[in-house]
Amino acid sequence: MAVSREKGLAEVRFLTVAEVASLMRVSKMTVYRLVHSGELNAVRVGRSFRVPENAVHQYLKEAFTDTA
């Protein structure tokens, strides 16, 4: 089971806060707010955050369906 989890993590693409902000077309501060509120999953690496790309897509999908 640990091997499959490691393989899964190796396939995850992590984005910087700036990349997420650009992708979502919002400010970096907005991304930081989403991360700190727990609305957007992220991993802390040193003093910075890395956001799994699939977490961004999942957040946008949920946000889009909530407004419909």
Uncertain runs: none
Q: SSE order in H/E notation?
A: HEHHEEH
Mean pLDDT, nearest integer?
A: 88
Enter the CATH topology name: Arc Repressor Mutant, subunit A
Describe this structure in words.
The chain has 68 residues and is an alpha+beta fold. It has a single domain, classed as Orthogonal Bundle (Arc Repressor Mutant, subunit A). Helix content is 62%, strand content 16%. It is built from four helices and three strands, in the order αβααββα. A three-stranded antiparallel β-sheet has the order 1-3-2. It is globular.
Output the keywords.
globular; 68 residues; single chain; 3-stranded antiparallel sheet; Arc Repressor Mutant, subunit A; 4 helices; alpha+beta
Structure summary:
62% of the residues lie in helices and 16% in strands.
Q: Helix and strand layout, with pairings?
A:
Layout: H1 2-10, E1 14-16, H2 17-24, H3 28-37, E2 43-45, E3 48-52, H4 53-67
Antiparallel strand pairs: 1-3, 2-3
